[in-house]
Design goal:
alpha/beta; FAD/NAD(P)-binding domain; Enolase-like, domain 1; 3 domains; 8-stranded mixed beta sheet; 11 helices; 24 strands; 28% helix; binds flavin-adenine dinucleotide
Length: 493
């Protein structure tokens, strides 16, 4: 039986970042993976979907005819797109492998990483059994990190067949662009795939939205904006529609949708993509054998140090990433994985603060979010001012001929005028959102931020103008551009 300082189950962003941090502290780390190295951070997840998104966006830009250029004979082949996407995933996996191999054999460093391929399950609180392709091994550890992530949620009564009824794991098994696709679920991942398929213009895209708004947790103006852009891109959104049946015929799928207003619609599509959320991936590890008690949602509840409590006490078993029930984001998984190992090494460090966590949404154009939105602040009874500034007034966006987009910033409606949140859309929104995350993290007020020089021409200048407009000192005025600049105030009754 082999014994390690740290045994990690799962090699996604949580597991991998933890393994590398373990080496930083001189630990002997064993990382066990039953599927793809990198988990949903790489294959069938964040990296592959983003590669496909970037390719689809480039294609849609190349197909434009309103900018003075016209690409002749533009065609696209799904198999080649798929190969490019897989190549991107492999590129990252080889980087990860190179690092693992370096630390597996380095004689100059204390500690190292051993990658074991197989399915791990607890035998007792200090031992896991790993069932590999050819053998079974028992591995012991002083500390454990459970980083088993999540898996696509199943739609009751509609089993995935991997060919015509798929989930996000099945995108790369499609052999060609479907002529017609129904995307069931209008959360971030559903809207991303609707954007991707509509960008390539090879597929009739239907998006099923059970509510009356896509992204229902976002402010209504943001949800409506996203829905409008999807529709402009050719997506048919079926709002307030429930899926009654989906029947497989030899040549197509027949779908019946029931709308809240009482009417129904029969639709014919070729592929259905189920995208109704992700459930934590926990039970394969037999948590009961380690004395772990999952929550009702099948997640592992962790304390601020990412430790799982056993009998109410912090234990030697830690958890990080999607399995913890926190926001299912790459960055959260990575930071939690690091935090867990820092704690194991006796470092206290700074507590994880989820209030300035950024979320990126890869639509056309992209949308980025950080901190509070109006709905959250109203629920909490926090008075705020919301300033909206359209990209139509930003020189860089004008130069890019891409003025669809906006910056919306929320500040506290008191003398401190602290920055509480931002929603932004348009080119590069995913790049500059983090600058506002810093402002929120540091508790910056409007006055302090306005001391900074924003470089010109940059899309980020919109942040400055948006904040200036709150103090009535923007260069362009709401009076002249009432649809493009406005301030909204809210106070609890
Ligand atoms: C289509 C898609 C797009 C996404 N896009 C983004 C994005 O743009 N930005 C973003 O921040 N996030 C995105 N995410 C979410 C992000 O990928 C996840 O939040 C992140 O991967 C979670 O990391 P993790 O380490 O917790 O788990 P995972 O990445 O899920 O990794 C868990 C690993 O554990 C392994 N495992 C499970 N059980 C066992 C076992 N018993 N034994 C051994 N190994 C086991 C699994 O095989 C898997 O490899 C996306 C996800 C999907 C599906």
């Amino acid at each position: 039986m082999k014994r390690f300082d740290l045994v990690i189950i799962g090699s996604g962003p949580a597991g991998f970042s933890a393994a590398v941090r373990g080496v930083d502290f001189g630990m002997n780390v064993c990382m066990i993976e039953s599927g793809n190295l990198g988990g949903a951070g790489i294959m069938n997840g964040a990296l592959t979907s983003k590669t496909m998104y970037e390719l689809s966006l480039d294609y849609s830009i190349a197909a434009r005819v309103d900018r003075g250029y016209r690409a002749g004979g533009l065609t696209v082949d799904y198999k080649k797109v798929r190969n490019t996407v897989i190549q991107a995933a492999k590129e990252k996996q080889y980087q990860m492998r190179s690092q693992i191999e370096t630390f597996a054999r380095s004689k100059h460093l204390k500690g190292g990483i051993t990658l074991v391929q197989g399915m791990a399950s607890f035998v007792d609180p200090h031992t896991v059994k790993v069932v590999g392709a050819a053998d079974e091994t028992l591995i012991q550890g002083d500390n454990f990190l459970i980083a088993t992530g999540s898996k696509p949620r199943e739609y009751p009564g509609i089993p995935v067949d991997g060919e015509r009824i798929i989930d996000s794991n099945g995108i790369l098994s499609l052999k060609q662009f479907p002529d017609r696709i129904l995307i069931i679920g209008s959360g971030i991942i559903g809207c991303e795939f609707a954007t991707i398929f509509s960008n390539f213009k090879q597929t009739e895209v239907h998006l099923l939205d059970r509510a009356n708004r896509v992204l229902p947790y976002e402010d209504d103006d943001v949800s409506d904006y996203v829905a409008e852009n999807l529709t402009k891109n050719g997506v048919t959104i079926h709002h307030t529609a429930q899926l009654r049946t989906l029947v497989k015929h030899p040549s197509h799928l027949e779908v019946i949708l029931d709308y809240d207003d009482g009417h129904s619609k029969v639709l014919e599509v070729d592929v259905a993509l189920i995208s109704i959320g992700r459930d934590s991936n926990l039970y394969s590890i037999k948590p009961e054998n380690a004395g772990l008690e999952p929550s009702d949602k099948g997640t592992l509840i962790i304390n601020d140090n990412c430790q799982v409590l056993i009998d109410g006490k912090p234990s030697h078993i830690y958890a990080a990433g999607d399995v913890t029930g926190h926001s299912q984001l790459y960055s959260v998984a990575e930071l939690q994985g690091r935090k867990a190992v820092e704690r194991m090494a006796g470092k206290t460090g700074y507590p994880l603060d989820y209030s300035h966590m950024s979320t990126l949404m890869f639509f056309k154009p992209e949308v980025a979010a950080v901190g509070a939105n109006e709905k959250m602040l109203r629920k909490q009874g926090v008075a705020y001012k919301a300033a909206y500034y359209s990209n139509k007034l930003i020189n860089r966006a004008i130069a890019m001929r891409s003025t669809t987009g906006f910056i919306k910033i929320l500040v506290s409606n008191d003398e401190t005028q602290r920055i509480l949140g931002m929603r932004a859309s348009g080119p590069q929104a995913s790049a500059y959102i983090v600058s506002v995350a810093h402002l929120i993290n540091q508790g910056n007020s409007l006055g302090e931020v306005l001391k900074i020089f924003y470089p010109h021409p940059s899309v980020a200048e919109g942040i400055q103008e948006c904040l200036r407009s709150i103090g009535k000192r923007s260069i362009y005025k709401p009076e002249a551009f009432p649809e493009d600049i406005y301030i909204r105030e809210w106070k609890p009754e």
